[in-house]
TrEMBL record:
Residue ranges the record marks as coiled coil: none
InterPro entries noted in UniProt: CobW/HypB/UreG_nucleotide-bd, P-loop_NTPase, Zinc-reg_GTPase_activator
Record Pfam families: cobW
Highest taxon in the source lineage: Bacteria
Gene3D superfamilies documented for this protein: P-loop containing nucleotide triphosphate hydrolases
A Gene Ontology term for the protein's cellular component: cytoplasm
Domain CobW/HypB/UreG nucleotide-binding intervals: 5-184
Name listed for the protein in its UniProt record: Cobalamin synthesis protein P47K
Amino acid sequence: MHLNLLSGFLGSGKTTAINHACKLLQMQGFRVGVITNDQGTELVDTQFMAREGILTEEVTGSCFCCNFESFTRNMNQLLEQHQVDLIFAESVGSCTDLISTILNPLRRYYGEIKITLSVFADAKLLPIALGHSRIFKDSVNYIYKRQLEEADLLIINKVDLLEPTELAVLDSLIKKEFPDKQMVFQSSLQRESILNWLQKTETYEHFKERRSLFIDYDIYGKGEAALTWLDYKLELVSLEGRAGLAAELLISMLNRMIRERNLPIGHLKFLIEGGEESQKLSFTTMETADFRIQLSGKLDKLRMLINARVQCRPKSLQGIVDKALQRVAKQNGVKIALLKTSIFVPGYPRPTHRIIT
Ligand SMILES: Nc1nc2c(ncn2[C@@H]2O[C@H](COP(=O)(O)OP(=O)(O)OP(=O)(O)O)[C@@H](O)[C@H]2O)c(=O)[nH]1
Ligand SMILES: [Mg+2]
């Protein structure tokens, strides 16, 4: 079994890479499983993976490191009940210190499992995070940089969005910052790029000792607490078949209202479900908000799951979302039922194990 552990900031492209990798591996006859992770409990990523026909377990309500038992329980379940050859585990995008809290404990309690830690970074956001200008607060940036530091493989993702000159500048910047790191320049939308990443994870020298991060948990905790997590599950009902239009309006409005207030978006994810069909929509600070809902037919009823991770206070984000819901209901004559809501700031990170090497 190979445990392919993915880390990296919110929206860097982990789920996209896992989804494409699973499809390619399944076509080659491999059994694959995924463990998703989030501090929330209603996860767009889990439902998206399941809809894509990928065997998926989840660790919810905390990061992997703060719930090591749940992580290993899921791992064992995938191994014993489903006999998977390979597990992809996507850690939540605000989490770091995985060498001490996951890799070293796994090694101590489970022996020599083959593990690779791929850390994803958005090629557009990376130069900003490493440079002098700032989008996120210093404490959030601190998490971002610690994540990169502990990578076995540093995946510079979304390179399809860069001009060749931008790519050359980024290449020299990263080589200066991380001279000893193995780097992979990737577009997770492209088959060849995913195959290259998989090949790199397969051939990585797995059993060499990894150095634990030197990390200040107070800054780490402050960084996590700078972000608000908002999860809303709703139903849009329209007797005139306007639920799709209402969903589009809601998503555009949320994007606009958050950006107008200059609130940095970690990730704004939506899963829209209408009957048998579903669509995931995703926006980050670096990504513009052009999109279309592609569910077919006249839509009377839609379900929508919103996972918003934004740098602001919980009240601000709740105020924006509630206002947008009211406006959309009024303008479109749709009924919006809130099925589940949760708004919170992640608590101080208290890992189950912390083994230093
Ligand atoms: N252009 C481009 N877009 C990408 C690439 N990889 C991912 N994306 C887009 O980036 C956005 C975020 O991707 P996800 O895979 O959901 O990111 P994530 O790291 O799983 O995000 P979290 O689960 O919130 O931490 C989506 O809109 C993807 O389509 C890429 O290589 N190129
Ligand atoms: Mg994800």
